Amino acid sequence: MSRVFAYCRVSTAEQSFENQVLEIQAAGFSLESRRVISETVSGSTAAMERKGFRQLVDRLDWDDVLVVTKLDRLGRNAMDVRTTVERLAEMKVRVHCLALGGVDLTSAAGKMTMAVIAAVAEFERDLLVERTQAGLTRAKAQGKALGRPSTLTIEQKGIIRKRRMQGASLGALANEFGVSRSAIQRASRVV
Predict the structure, then answer these.
(1) What pLDDT, on a 0 to 100 scale, did the predictor assign at position 147?
(2) In what order do the strands lie in the sheet with 103-104?
(3) N or C terminus of the chain: which is more exposed, having fewer CB within 10 Å?
(4) pTM for this structure?
């Protein structure tokens, strides 16, 4: 007989997972309190890196059902959600998402839904990269300096180059100027 588990995640301690439990029960799932796993962790943390979710996966068995209210409870990254659902499918665990009409994400229709979600996420990522590249190109064309501002002035860099040629160590110069050794290495390069 299938056991029903609920995974309820909130991002901050001020939030409550009780609404998620009520929503799952209202959808007709019978839940035992010992099978409700809740945790407070950011959705940007990969599912398998979350303590509560890992413990849940260890408890799941063949033909169990895992219910979430929304797909973002599993994660905000479409690739992570997809990997998580595929791993659960390999374990023969059915994953139901109420926000997607209660579809079992491990079924044929659920796999199609996941493929569409992954394609849209990849499209959005590609658009973001294109916009970022266009913005960087425009900024360069306008003569704007990109990257972090240098912690050392042009004069300090000249002093560092001169002192390095005289044999001063990276560590000594880093201490003197209050920067990292790598900053001294960058400043030592002849431009």
Answers:
(1) 82
(2) 36-40, 4-10, 65-68, 94-97, 103-104
(3) N
(4) 0.64
